[in-house]
């Protein structure tokens, strides 16, 4: 995975086009450009067809694993299944499926 000058993760799919400014750095996982929870609407609003899901999946699974470690247990913070649904927004996951994925990513 590519990293910026701070050592923050930058998904390879974010290096070009409209996503270039919409990056993040742990442990906060907010967008460097718009300040929204990352992945921000710049990532989540465009349609995700099968080809785009295939491109996003490996990178965002790695990012979800790291985000679970950074965000779980924070007062008022998201729980691991919520983090999974946040980072894998392009798959319609039930609560049980998100919980199972979160357990595997811990």
The rounded Rg comes to: 13 Å
Strand elements, count: 2
Structural class: mainly alpha
Biggest sheet: strand arrangement? 1-2
What average pLDDT do the residues reach? 85
The ordered string of helix (H) and strand (E) elements is EEHHHH
Number of distinct helices: 4
Task: Describe the largest sheet.
Answer: 2 strands, antiparallel
Roughly what fraction of the amino acids lie in strands? under 5%
Residues in helix, %: 40-55%
* Shape field: globular
Instruction: Detail the poorly predicted runs.
Output: 12-16
* Distance between the ends: 19 Å
Task: Please outline what is shown here.
By secondary structure, the chain is mainly alpha-helical.
Q: Layout of helices and strands, plus pairs?
A:
Layout: E1 2-3, E2 9-10, H1 41-44, H2 50-71, H3 80-87, H4 95-105
Antiparallel strand pairs: 1-2
Helix pairs in contact: 2-3, 3-4
Fold and architecture overview:
This protein is mainly α and 106 residues long. The chain has four helices and two strands. The chain has helices at 41-44, 50-71, 80-87, 95-105; strands at 2-3, 9-10. Strands 1-2 form a two-stranded antiparallel ribbon. A hairpin with a 5-residue loop joins β1 (2-3) and β2. The longest helix has 22 residues, at 50-71. The protein is globular, with a radius of gyration of 13 Å.
Keywords:
single chain, 106 residues, mainly alpha, two-stranded antiparallel ribbon
């Amino acid at each position: 995975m590519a990293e910026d000058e701070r050592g923050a993760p930058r998904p390879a799919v974010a290096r070009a086009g409209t996503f270039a400014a919409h990056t993040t750095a742990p442990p906060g996982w907010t967008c460097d450009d718009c300040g929204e929870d990352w992945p921000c609407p710049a990532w989540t609003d465009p349609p995700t067809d099968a080809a785009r899901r295939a491109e996003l999946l490996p990178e965002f699974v790695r990012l979800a694993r790291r985000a679970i470690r950074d965000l779980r247990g924070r007062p008022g913070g998201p729980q691991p299944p919520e983090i999974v649904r946040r980072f894998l927004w392009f798959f319609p996951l039930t609560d049980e499926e998100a919980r199972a994925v979160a357990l595997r990513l811990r």
